[in-house]
């Protein structure tokens, strides 16, 4: 006589989990976790203050003191919408001559401290890697960005000053 319930083990009457059940359950947990983190999912591992990173307050103070060149790498339409952080240089990262333009701002010194800020820290992280490969040796990321991220509230919500781009 065949067993009417193939999902039960005769030695252990509890139902066994099928592969499909495990996968479905794991998917539900994973998707639920994304909902908890909301829009900050992409940058939750970057925390301002880690090696090679500055908070927006630190970046503002260092740029104001002339210790770093703070570069806003966003697009011109983004600068027009929110303004550019005070003491930051607006330099669109999509420019074909971006590296040369940045070198001009640091008097051709690729070891000069340069901090990069974008909207939410994603582009600045990518550009940090790109500039390091191009020979820059002191690139600093501002992972909070202008709008905030998992690293912190960002330049605007922190109440730091902005200027309108020319």
Computed Rg: 24 Å
The helix count comes to 6
Number of strands: 6
Order of strands in the sheet with most strands:
3-1-4-5
**Could you name the CATH homologous superfamily of the largest domain?**
Rhodanese-like domain
Order of helices and strands: HHEHEEHEHEHE
Rounded mean pLDDT is 81
Please indicate the count of domains: 2
- What top-tier CATH class of the largest domain fits best? Alpha Beta
Strand content: 5-15%
Assembly category? single chain
| End-to-end CA span | 86 Å
Low-confidence stretches: 28-50
Shape descriptor reads globular
Binned, the helix content reads 25-40%
EC number: 2.8.1.1
Protein name: Thiosulfate sulfurtransferase GlpE
InterPro entries: Rhodanese-like_dom, Rhodanese-like_dom_sf, TAT_signal
Keywords: Membrane, Transferase, Transmembrane, Transmembrane helix
């Amino acid at each position: 006589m065949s067993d009417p319930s193939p999902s039960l083990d005769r030695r252990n009457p509890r139902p066994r989990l099928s592969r499909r059940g495990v996968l479905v359950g794991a998917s539900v947990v994973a998707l639920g976790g994304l909902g908890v983190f909301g829009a900050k999912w992409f940058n939750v591992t970057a925390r301002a203050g880690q090696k090679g990173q500055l908070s927006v307050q630190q970046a503002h103070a260092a740029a104001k003191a002339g210790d770093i060149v703070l570069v806003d790498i966003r697009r011109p339409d983004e600068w027009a919408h929110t303004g550019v952080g005070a003491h930051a240089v607006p330099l669109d990262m999509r420019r074909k001559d971006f590296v040369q333009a940045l070198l001009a701002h640091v008097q051709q010194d690729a070891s000069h401290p340069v901090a990069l800020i974008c909207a939410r820290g994603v582009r600045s992280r990518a550009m940090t890697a790109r500039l390091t490969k191009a020979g820059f040796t002191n690139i600093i990321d501002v992972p909070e960005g202008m709008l905030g991220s998992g690293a912190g509230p960002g330049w605007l919500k922190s109440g730091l000053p902005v200027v309108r781009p020319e």
